[in-house]
Automatic annotation (TrEMBL):
The keyword Zinc applies. Keywords: Hydrolase, Metal-binding, Multifunctional enzyme, NADP, Oxidoreductase, Riboflavin biosynthesis, Zinc. This is Riboflavin biosynthesis protein RibD. NADP(+) binds at residues 158, 174, 200, 204, 226, 257-263. The gene is ribD. It comes from the Bacteria. GO terms for biological process: riboflavin biosynthetic process. The active site is at 56 (proton donor). GO terms for molecular function: 5-amino-6-(5-phosphoribosylamino)uracil reductase activity; diaminohydroxyphosphoribosylaminopyrimidine deaminase activity; metal ion binding. It catalyses: 2,5-diamino-6-hydroxy-4-(5-phosphoribosylamino)-pyrimidine + H2O + H(+) = 5-amino-6-(5-phospho-D-ribosylamino)uracil + NH4(+); 5-amino-6-(5-phospho-D-ribitylamino)uracil + NADP(+) = 5-amino-6-(5-phospho-D-ribosylamino)uracil + NADPH + H(+). In the N-terminal section; belongs to the cytidine and deoxycytidylate deaminase family. In the C-terminal section; belongs to the HTP reductase family. Its EC number is 3.5.4.26, 1.1.1.193.
């Protein structure tokens, strides 16, 4: 006999749904909502492009009368503040006839923080805050902005088995195969901005775009870490900490090169590390990451937790979460 899904399972599913809204929902967070009645999904939604309508409004509209007595699973606490762009989601849920609302992450926005849950309880709806790793991860950029005042940073590195990102003469196209490169573009499509170092910008003039069928129109803000003069078509920052000033950027993708990667790691500004490893040995090539001032091996341990691993053609992809 199959075990019925738990609240945690439904929240995980809502988090996967939320991914459809990123990054087009900006400046709003990408939220996912599922409405479940008697074990069946009767409504689902994610934050629309530009931030409206919200996930809860979309799911409720789809559910209609089937929302009565149902449970809503929402990755982020429903908003409780008034907006000229639409009604508060807490009010919509409160008037829907729902029996329960299960929430994966409390909203740090002071206009809502706890107010959404309170509004639901006042309406006689059981409101449960069930901390969810999947929900938290799906809102990483929004939550990082709220907590630290900066974007969520992903560092991408493509390297050989012996840890090189290029040959000794600087040649780096291509270390990985087509499948891995396509995966990189799918990851770019989830970001608000992409950053490279000044050396990479001057040497390669990278396009820093998304080259996947159907996503060619996806544009990212281009950022260059350099002490040089302003560049056409890119935002300049002189130090990694200045990413806090990238207005409207919740997700930042850092691609290179070695010194840029080292500078972000040295300042502990990398939240997710994505490594593409090709089955080649270069020998005497350029190292993937420069000095990050780690004093001892003991200091290097315990910082990273593997969260994902997959094969992409002949290459291997592994993602790590910074443990803090």
């Amino acid at each position: 006999m199959q075990t019925p899904p738990t609240d945690a399972h439904w929240l995980d599913a809502a988090a996967r749904l939320a991914a459809r809204g990123r990054p087009l929902s900006c400046p709003n967070p990408a939220v996912g909502c599922l409405i479940v009645n008697d074990g069946m999904v009767v409504g689902r939604g994610w934050t629309a492009e530009g931030g409206r309508p919200h996930a809860e409004a979309v799911a409720l509209a789809q559910a209609g009368d089937r929302a009565h007595g149902a449970t809503a699973y929402v990755t982020l606490e429903p908003c409780a503040h008034k907006s000229e762009r639409g009604p508060a989601c807490a009010d919509l849920l409160a008037g829907s006839g729902l029996a329960r609302v299960v929430i994966g992450v409390g909203d740090p926005d002071p206009r809502t923080a706890g107010g959404g849950i309170a509004r639901l309880k006042e309406a006689g709806i059981e409101a449960v805050l069930l901390p969810s790793r999947a929900s938290h991860d799906s809102l990483a950029g929004y939550l990082m902005r709220a907590a630290e005042g900066r974007p969520f940073v992903t560092l991408k590195v493509a390297l050989s088995l012996d840890g090189c990102i290029a040959a000794a003469d600087g040649e780096s196209q291509w270390i990985t195969g087509e499948e891995a490169r396509a995966h990189v573009h799918s990851r770019r499509a989830k970001q608000d901005a992409i950053l490279v170092g000044g050396g990479t910008w001057r040497a390669d003039r990278p396009r820093l775009d998304v080259r996947l069928p159907g996503l060619e129109g996806r544009t990212l803000r281009r950022v260059v870490l350099t002490r040089g003069v302003p560049l056409e078509g890119a935002t300049i920052i002189n130090r990694p900490a200045q990413i806090a000033g990238l207005e409207g950027v919740q997700y930042l993708y850092v691609e290179g090169g070695a010194q840029t990667a080292a500078s972000f790691l040295a300042e502990d500004l990398v939240d997710r590390l994505e490594i593409y490893r090709a089955p080649i040995v270069i020998g005497g090539g350029r190292p993937s990451i420069g000095d990050i001032a780690i004093g001892s091996l003991a200091d290097a341990h315990g910082r990273w937790e593997e969260t994902e691993h997959r094969r992409l053609g002949s290459d291997q992809f592994t993602a790590y979460r910074r443990t803090r």
